[in-house]
Amino acid sequence: MEAIDPVARVPDRGPLTAITRGIVKMHSEYFGKGPTRAKTERVGPDLVICVLRDALTPVERTLVARGRGEQVRSLRRSFQDVMEVEFRDVVERSLNRRVVAFMSQVSLDPDIAAELFFLAPDGSEASG
Fold this sequence. Notes:
The protein is of the alpha+beta class. Helices cover 41% and strands 23% of the residues. It has one domain. The protein is built from three helices and four strands; from the N terminus they run αββααββ. A four-stranded antiparallel β-sheet has the order 1-2-4-3, with helices on one face. A hairpin with a 4-residue loop joins strand 3 and strand 4 (112-119).
């Protein structure tokens, strides 16, 4: 079965597409499966949100179906905690803006995840 590339048909929107591709790539590499749809948007000057749809793995879906959704949430939170630097780096490199806060949330039904990045005030370049 051929892997689904959720951003293949998305018109290149420069930095926002780069963020989407970077976040999807990390999910795909570390979970063995990425979301089937993903999109990144700017919300005002200092907030970036990446929405991932259909991101749960078959194992996670099985756990949710059998009443173990909290374990899935816990695993996802742990993953975000240990990968925070890498997630921030994708956004900082793409926008040349420093990320001052990162938050992640997952909904199990429907299967939607959101990665939120709060940027330093305009003109504050990323370090490195």
